[in-house]
Specification:
alpha/beta; five-stranded parallel β-sheet; Rossmann fold; three-stranded antiparallel β-sheet
């Protein structure tokens, strides 16, 4: 995750959350970031910490849980995803780049594109969600497995604070129903996901991905687990961290804007999700083989 942030990690983090912070020198003269929530010191993360970026991402989720818009189960889901991020080296792989480019083309081709947002997505990448939506002309819609009016309103407010003009799927707006789906995710906006031709579903449940595909929709998933039901059911699966995938998609969309529709159709229609997922598995296998061959223990200075 080393190059996720254009500015300093701390500036990026607090620009996202709008949370208070202060800095204090450590005993070695380093600047240490203090993260506060509810007036209590929650973490001390020195800039030199080797897992600093990962810890900052976790803090965003924890803060989202405290504020009430991230479900407790979302914390578990993130940990599972982080495990797969380790396997791909915490970087965007060539198969992921190919999928991100195809996804950008599909969104630009869409007549009614919609980006679905849950609690984890809102905690991890609210600004990137809004920026991508603006770039491709997509609507933003809140959709939750553990749905409550409070969570809907909180997520909508976060998206608005990050520049969204309209957020669908809140309250009575989620009055249409996805057929053959029985969780709270079945409730969608009639103006949004229900009418969409292309739906981006970052950090998604597999059953809704399958249901959306049965409705004839193109489904783009962002999922670090290449073996999940979501990954295997989606039209285009991006096996990448959402914090890397969304900026990459926005960049590709800017590059592809104005290209002929037949070129975009070739990019999106020529994407083979099964082949791409198999390439991801090969990439993981080759990386693990390489690590097993050269050794994986850390070289530490001798006392």
């Amino acid at each position: 995750m080393g190059a996720l942030y254009g500015a300093t990690a701390s500036a990026y983090f607090f620009a996202k959350l709008g949370g208070p912070s202060e800095r204090a020198p450590s005993q070695r003269g380093e600047e240490i970031l203090t993260i506060r929530a509810g007036g209590a010191v929650e973490a001390w993360i020195p800039p030199s910490h080797p897992r600093r970026e990962s810890l900052l991402v976790r803090e965003r989720l924890v803060e989202g849980f405290r504020e009430g818009f991230v479900a407790m189960q979302g914390l578990i889901a993130h940990g599972r995803g982080e495990c797969f991020d380790y396997l791909i080296g915490e970087q965007t792989t060539p198969p992921a780049l190919e999928a991100e480019r195809a996804a950008a083309a599909a969104l630009l081709l869409a007549e009614r594109p919609v980006i679905s947002v849950n609690g984890n997505a809102a905690a991890l990448a609210p600004r990137e969600l809004v920026e991508l939506a603006k770039t491709v002309g997509a609507k933003l819609e809140v959709n939750l497995f553990y749905r409550s009016r409070e969570r809907e309103l909180l997520i909508a407010e976060i998206l608005r604070r990050n520049g969204a003009a309209e957020v669908l799927g809140v309250g009575d707006d989620a009055s249409c129903t996805i057929p053959e789906l029985f969780s709270e995710r079945r409730r969608v906006s009639c103006r949004g996901i229900y009418a969409a031709d292309v739906v981006l579903v970052p950090l998604e449940d597999g059953d809704r991905t399958e249901a959306l595909r049965r409705m004839g929709k193109t489904v783009i998933a962002v999922d670090l687990n290449p073996l999940s039901r979501t990954s295997r059911a989606a039209t285009i699966t991006i096996v990448d961290n959402i914090t890397r995938a969304l900026p990459n998609m926005a960049k590709f969309a800017e590059e592809l804007k104005g290209r002929p529709r037949d070129e975009l159709s070739a990019l999106a229609g020529g994407f083979d999700n099964d082949r791409n997922l198999r390439e991801v598995l090969r990439y993981i296998g080759m990386r693990l083989e390489e690590l097993a061959g050269r050794g994986i223990t850390l070289e530490l200075p001798k006392a």
